[in-house]
Amino acid sequence: MLEAGEDTVDLHGQVERLKRRVAQLERNDAIHQKTIEASPDVTFRFDPEALCNYVSPAIADVLGYTPEEHVGSSGFAIIHPDEQHLAQQLRERLLPAMPGTGSDRFGPVLSRLRHKGGHFVWVETMVVIIRDPDTGVVQEFVLTARDVNARVEAEAALRVSEERSTAMLDNLQVGVVVQGARSEMLRYNEIALDMLGLTAEQIEGRDSFDSRWAVIHEDGSPMPGDQHPVVVAITTGKPVREVVMGVYRPASDSRVWLLVSATPQFDKSGRAFQTVCTFTNITAQKQAEVLIREQKELLERMSSPTIPIAAGVVVLPLIGQFDAGRAERVLDGVLSGVALHTARVVILDITGVSTADAAFASSLLQISRAVRLLGAEVVVTGMTPSIAQILVGLGIDFRGLVTRGTLQDGVAFALGR
């Protein structure tokens, strides 16, 4: 009898433990159910035929249905027609399988579900397949759908904006480079790559401090990275306008001259987080300037020769405009010509001078005084009425300066001395 009593007590204890376990499971299930019902994600439960036997209240907010309206309907009916392949993939996974084979999780997958209003809503879905632990036969499957419509639409709008921005950059006729807070390259257009002689792969990872740019100033001196317009704009927080930079082009082993501007952009805290750098290719302009300067210097040398026309007499025809630099070169040429030809008379013919001002008048007097110091005399010829009027209007005393109307008159005067 004692042994039977002990067995009864032990059985009673096991029953109590099972009751407590069942109660705990029921409490956990209730908590789980409350969690599902409070979640903004929609939870569906489907039988193996994909008929809905439960849907959480969140369906009203996401898809516009009440739970009662959707229970009993097919889970595949509201999937967008373009995404029926996802439904097929799910059907294949619902086929009977041996326990432990295959995957009982499907997703996350981005898809569209039809709203009660007729439009489609983007959701991110995850499916969990519940199988019989012994046979592997599908008992049901649970699908959760998270509303990501706002995110997808924002991403689509961002893509459109980026595509529009890229198209705009590519259609600009100037080079554009967007550089980050450390002057690293973020974006660029095709024209920028063409001007810099780089490919997209070659420009990646570069910043303004990269020695491969080999940038120089207009005078040929090196321009270190901290002097580049982008870095100056980031450092000072102010725009930098129209800086001339000579940049090395590895593709052609040459240098391109760029006119560069940089404008910093600020975040909400006032920090310069990136800089938009624009530039135009002024290489042809720089080359033209050099050519014009060289031609001007050549013309001045050719237009200011000291020409001996007789023993002790030289002629210097002046052509074009006068500035301080040219006046100095003319003076050097006259003095050299006087010494070289042992001249007594220097004829300055100004027939070809286009304009006259105080600097020109001062130059004539300076040349005359310097020539006299060498024991020679200056005769000015070719004075036009307009230039004579200008010089008189300047109020400069020209007494002592010999003038003659034409070059022939000046030659006659010189030969008679």
From TrEMBL:
Ranges where the STAS domain occurs: 303-414
Domain PAC span(s) in chain numbering: 107-160, 241-294
Key words of the record: Coiled coil, Phosphoprotein
Coiled-coil residues: 8-35
Residue ranges of every copy of the PAS domain listed in the record: 28-98, 161-219
Gene3D superfamilies: PAS domain, STAS domain
A Pfam family reported for this protein in Swiss-Prot or TrEMBL: STAS
InterPro entries per UniProt: Bact_StressResp_Reg, PAC, PAS, PAS-assoc_C, PAS-like_dom_sf, PAS_fold_3, STAS_dom, STAS_dom_sf
NCBIfam families linked: sensory_box (TIGR00229)
Protein name: PAS domain S-box protein
Source species: Nannocystis bainbridge
